[in-house]
Structure formats: C-alpha cells, structure tokens
Amino acid sequence: MANPYRELLAVPGTRTFVAAGFVGRMSMSMVGIAIVLLVSAVTGSYGIAGAVSATLSLAYAVGAPLSARFADRHGQRRVLVPLALANASSFATLITFTLLRLPTWTLFPMAALAGLTQPSLGAWVRARWKYALRDAPARLHTAFSFESVVDEMIFVCGPMIVTAVATGVHPAAGLAVAASFTLVGCLALAAQRGTEPPPVPRVAGAPTSVLRNPAILVMAPVFLMLGAVFGAIDVSGIAFAEEKGHKVLAGLLLGCYALGSGSAALWYGARRWRSPLGRRFRIGLILLAAGLVPPLLITNLYLMMFVVFFSGLAISPTIIPGYGLVEQSVPGHQLTEGLALVSTTVGLGVALGASSAGRVVDAYGARAAFWLPLGAALIAAGIGLAGTRKNK
C-alpha cells in the first residue's frame, strides 16, 4: 500500500523546505514562555512579564499578515532575509535591555518590534506546498495534514525545550534559543529558491486587503475561537492536574490532547476525500464541540488523559479543511497573507482563552474552567455553520 506522506516528501525540494520550516516555527511555541521566564526572573514580577509577552503577541498579530502580503507581492526571499535579521536584532536588544535592568518601559517597544518582525512561517511553508503541488492539487490536503502534524510536534517539544534551557542554563538562554530557531529557519527557507512561489503582482481593481474577502471574514473569527479553545484547555488542564496533586503530569495531560490531534491529522491526510471541504469543516466543528463535553464530567486525572486524547481527535480534521477553504477562496496574490491572517487569529485566541480560563480557575476552580473551551467551540461552530453554507 502506497504511503501518501512518503510520496509527498519525494517531491523535489520539499524535504528541505519542510525542515527549514520546522526549525523556524519552533519559536512560535517558545517565545511567550521564554519572555515570561526571563522577565519574571529579572524583575520578580509575573505581571510585567505577562504584559511584555502580550505586547509581542499583539504586535505579531499585526505584523505577520503584513509581511506575508509583501511576500506574496515581492517573493519570499526578498522579504524573509531582512525580516529575519531585524527579528534577531530585536530579540537580542530585548534580552540586553532586560539583563541590564533598564527601565521597564524600554522592554515594551523591543517586544513590539520583535513581534512585528516575527513571520508566520507556517503560512509561508503552506504557500510553498501549493506551488510545489501545482500539478497535483488533489494532494494538497495531505500536505496540509502533514503540516498540522508538524505544528503539533512543535507545540509538544517547544515548551519543554525552552523551559529546560531557561531554568537549567540561564533565564536569558530560553529566549536566545527561540530567536536562534527563527533566524536559522528563516534564512534556510530563504536560501531555497527552487520551491519559492513566484511573486504575484496585485490585480488592478482587486481589494488591497485580504480582510475584504468574504471567506476570511468567516474564517478569522472561527479560528479565533478555535485558538480560545486551545488556550483555555491548556490553562484548565494545568490547573486540573495541580488540583489533583500531580502538577508534574500537566504536560503529559496536554500532550495527550495534542497526540489525539496529531494522530487524526495523519489519518485525515492519508485518506482521499470525496466530500466537499465545507462539509468536512462543518462536521469537524460539530465533533470538536461534542468532544469537549466529556472533560466536564471527569474527576480523575488518569481518566482525563484518556478522555482528552479523544477530545483532540477532532482538532486537525477541523483545522486542515479550514486552511483548505482559505486556500480555495483567496486569490493567488493574497494566499500567504490569508493563511498568515488565520494563523495569527489562532494565536490571539490562545491568549484570550488562556487569560479567561485563568480568571475562572482563580474564582471557581479548574473544573469550572472547562466550560470555556466548550463555549468557544460552540461559538466557532455557530459562525462556521452559518458562514460556510454555500460550501456544500
């Protein structure tokens, strides 16, 4: 039996851009934690650390779609090289200012600059997949499934790496390693000219912003709510493990959730689907919401690990067709920008969900906080079902 993933990686040039993208994207699961660990260690304040990290996240949400727009218009290499160098310089300055104990306010513009220059590299890699598979578009869903598995690996490995380095070597080492991943990955990706999508000039009379695209107006809030699901699950899961007296197992609990999603992504990408993307997306949203009901009923930590694995099974079969709908609906000259925009809304949703769940945990406990991801999933399903009805 043919292995679709082996066939996918046999396409010339794909293995090298996948490797570069993996390295460059590692930082997306690391920089927030790294900033909190560094700034809190120097200032003694988690409040300041969280504010600096939030500043970077907000700036990233603004900057990533803009840099992706320039990449669509001028080519990835011309944008990626100066962007990566500016990003590395910004992180180096942020580390320096923190270690020198300069006034707290100086950390915020540096965090903002680092966020503005942080590319949403997953979108850039997915755009390369579309170009590499331009003669076999039916295989694109397998490529997007593979990228979802890569994302899950990053979010499992990244936090463990940055925490180990920042606590075992030096508080600044975590952020330095995260920034190095971005720099090396971006430069390696930029060096691969053979798989770089050609620049697509803006079409005369076409909307200048991808936000005017009707599909993006639907998908952006859906992905925002999906991000809120992930952020709320993370905080609720950690708090649940701590309440049960096993905080050390919190990472394993969240890993079970990610493992469910990664397993489903492999299964999803290996199948040849006949049903339309829109229908698959809507079914995924419904199953994702349904899968978040059982955690509300569980009181045992080990049983919770079993349950959240099955809750995670619906994530990738929802995210993957979601990206597919964006790819189908956004014109070529805005593809990377559109993919980057929905990716950054996930990040914003994670921040929203995590902060909201933290407040609920403080006030009512971990079990009450599990209502938040269910509520966010129901909102996502409502928007998605209403907004994609034309996609049969």
UniProtKB/TrEMBL annotation:
It is a multi-pass membrane protein. Pfam families: MFS_1. Residues 215-392 form the Major facilitator superfamily (MFS) profile domain. The chain crosses the membrane at residues 16-40, 46-67, 79-100, 172-191, 211-233, 248-269, 281-298, 304-326, 338-357, 369-388. InterPro entries: MFS, MFS_dom, MFS_trans_sf. Keywords: Membrane, Transmembrane, Transmembrane helix. Its main location: membrane. Coiled coil: none annotated. It is found in: Cell membrane. This is MFS transporter. It comes from Actinomadura fulvescens. The lineage of its organism: Bacteria, Bacillati, Actinomycetota, Actinomycetes, Streptosporangiales.
